[in-house]
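Troubleshooting: if your tokenizer reports a length mismatch, compare against these two reference records.
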Amino acid sequence: MQPKDADVIVVGAGLAGLVATAELVHAGRSVLLVEQEGEQSLGGQAWWSFGGLFLVDSPEQRRLRVKDSVELAWQDWLGTAGFDREEDYWPRRWAEAYVNFAAGEKRSWLHQMGHRFFPVVGWAERGGYGATGPGNSVPRFHITWGTGPGVTAPFEAKVRDGVARGLVRLACNHRMESLVTSAGTVAGIRGSVLGRTTTPRGRLASRDVVGEFEFPAGAVVVTTGGIGGDHALVRDAWPARLGTPPATMLSGVPQHVDGRGIQAAQDAGGRVINPDRMWHYVEGIKNWNPVWPNHGIRILPGPSSLWLDAAGNRLPGPLFPGFDTLGTLEHLRSTGHDYSWFVLNKAIIRKEFALSGSEQNPDLTGKSVRDVLKRATAGVPGPVQKFLDHGEDFITASSVPGLVAAMNTLAKSATDGRAPVLSAESVLAELQARDREIANPFSKDAQVTAIRGARTYLGDRLIRTAAPRPILDPKDGPLIAVRLSVLTRKTLGGLETDLDSQVLGANGTPVPGLFAAGEAAGFGGGGMHGYRSLEGTFLGGCLFSGRAAGRAAAR
């Protein structure tokens, strides 16, 4: 098949692009799948992910005695999203459709393609503000057996089957730079052909321009992701409500996640809404074995670590580990410093620390039941131990004075001496005060109460939450401190789309021939998450919006 023969061009071979292409192939349409990276990068950021998917009232939840419903999930979504703008019309409709999808055919649709889920459902973004505030009332974070590669594999297989059948042509190392329009209708794309390389997945491929291209098609689907790899764009979009943007951040995505496709769609008449809504993590650590420049990994923490700001002040409730990402980001930006600290011990890190990413979870990624069982019964997980051994953000010590002295040294070296000096006496007092609250099965300390509440959920008691014990108990030592940085990840706004993933223009009508899905579309509608995410909804948003775009473009 030659490029001119394509019914539809899909730009971007991440998860949303693969899903859209698979749907087009299923409908018998011919597709040109264009990707600026090499073929080894099919699956994009989804391949690197932990594979968490948001499901509602699933069999996995019911087996763990979790009572969920569409009504409860929608209550949580509305309280988390905080829709409050006129332009939230389509994002809200997308959100409602997605919640119903997550409670309906999402699991069976994935199951038919071979997806399977780890039996313990995770409880992310727990909120803590009240029934109608942000956060998940119940555990909904379903981990795919095989993590990110397990999510992407069935769709990549369908795309490759389309290649074998002559319905799909892969145009990798092709960078779209603009959309071609004719009489107001999008009719193709143009851009640069990049030099072919064998660069490993995640590393920046060649940017040497070796030619130009222009491909016509009946429709174009933009699935090129967000802006998290370009910190200048992140800072430009940073909202005043979150304070000043950090001077230093870690990158949760490679450099090529640069917003190029969004800009091309804007130039062709598409409208971007909610560009100031974003989702960056506050539990970022520098990867000791980086794949891309400034590569950061997110800690997926349990609730027990003591969280201190750069000056040693304990974070207020409910800003505990795993409770409210955006609220914690807003609070920490008000401190005037770009980092914070977890203080914990070996017993807590053994039970509660997981690291986001397929490569950080070889047991789940490799689908090894034996190795997963070891996670619950052995010592510190292997990937976490490697960070303890090699990660520059990790400190261990046998005493609080020794720990604090090392924390001060690390902070000073990273900030040219501008870091506040922590007081060993103050940190010790915080730990002692917290530990006194452990002596009884009740407490006025909201975090201690939250820990005990978490352990009423069987999944947390089994593998995610340490028994409430004094952090200073020498039997659970050594003491550990972890420096945390802001980690760029997702843009929650994007190209405004209707429920058929058609990109809308400034007048609210569709731009003929133009569709968008995934992060480029704010995962649907231009921002279906609103201000916050319930987690497990980014991959799910790619699945849902990619499916809608593929089906609509096929029609």
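Reference record two:
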Amino acid sequence: MHRRLIVPGAIAASLLLAIPASAADFVPGAPGIGDPYYPASGNGGYDVTHYDLRLKYQPSTDLLEGTATILATPTQNLSRFNLDLGLKALDVRVNGRKAAFKATGAQELEVTPAVPLPKDRPVSVVVRYSGKPSEVKIDGWTAWHRTPDGGVAAQQPESAVWWFPSNDHPLDKATFDVSVAVPDGTQAISNGVLQSQSSRLGWTRYNWRSDKPQATYLATLAVGRFDVTTDTTANGLPVVNAYSKDLGANAGAARASIERTVEVAEWLEEIFGPYPFNALGGYVPNVRSGYALETQTRPFYSPRQFANGSNVSVVVHELAHQWYGDSVSVKGWKDIWINEGFARYSQWLWSEREGEGTAQELADWVYASRPAGDPFWTVKPGDPGPENQFHLAVYDRGALALQALRNELGDEDFFRLLKGWPTERAHGNADVADFVSYAERESGKELDALFDTWLYQPSKPATAPVPAAERSGASASARTAAPAPAAPPKSWAKIAATNTVHDHSDHGDHSDHGHGHD
């Protein structure tokens, strides 16, 4: 009988052999989701399905305390993963077990679970955290507005990191439950439907729910003292509008605009199809900013949007985004035209409805009022670059592209496209190439040259968008040679007043510039 001698090294080797070969496949998720404009945004390796946020906020100190429960599914075998968070994490658990974690970079929370996470097996992540959002600066800027009676999270392209941990990129949308405790006499406004409200020991808790996929930057939180109006649409959707109690001279104009939200939404349904979410509304906190934002179901409006009186055009813009930008979201931030070009064009269509200038007249004015040497024409709406992501050209030249498409296809096919796109892509993501392919498929026409001219060439197109009836050489040449219109359409002043609608920097001259990390 021969006894085999097993030395310690051999024992170790045999144990290694017993571990499945697939264990070697567990690797860290990427610290970014892969967006070339914002490499640090989002994270790789998993997909979030739901956020449950339980928060407590004290307006007098700006202290936010939170527990976020994140339901996700790994898209690879994960040894480690990142969340985006600017506040201080206090404790992290993955599938109920304590996990190691550390803050890295400007906004990364690096989490190492006790046990690696297999691909496609759902996980829960619980993060306890706290901090003062107004003290968090990332790349020199902030998405958190401190107000006299509270605080507001509303910003683009990022705002989540100031108030909850997330996979902070539109490519990873999820449903939300947001529960916020604030001192009695103060309200907490968020997205979706107010499920319940209760008070105890000097605090009132508001529970909000968004039951359709929502990008993280479209999640909003506003704490303060508001006058709140409520209603129900003809289709039974709850409507919640909220106005800061200290809007001063802008209060009446703000209400006169936002109280038309249901009317505007019903009109947009005629153009874009059924409203895609479970609630409607808008809110105006007492902030010093000048922009507005399409926060899902409940757009954010700065009081300055109404400094010159009521402006329903800005309401049209933000509500149009509920279809174009919120339900159908960008795959990457370079695809911003499929949000902003359509939202701006909806303002042109509202002008037609109100008898204040047709979309063609507005297109003619935009084209004629910008000479060929204007830097406006060097911005490519189809891929403007991060420095020009919210440049006015993305809006106005982006709308010109749609007028050119309308002229090419005719009204019947064009409006069929506008309604079909948010239906086909509901609650998903898309890029500019997806829309071009869709338009070609549905129209049966080759449209590459049209979109290249209006979205990608860094120069002024040779002619304005020409209606089909004037498409002959002589008519087109006469239109091009004609002097610029003596005056803009009547709606132009109201539309131009929204040119800073997504100018989030609030620094310097905003005539042609959008958000920048400055």
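Descriptive notes for reference record two:
- The domain at 329-500 is CATH 1.10.390.10 (Neutral Protease; domain 2).
- Residues 1-21, 506-518 have pLDDT under 50 and may be disordered.
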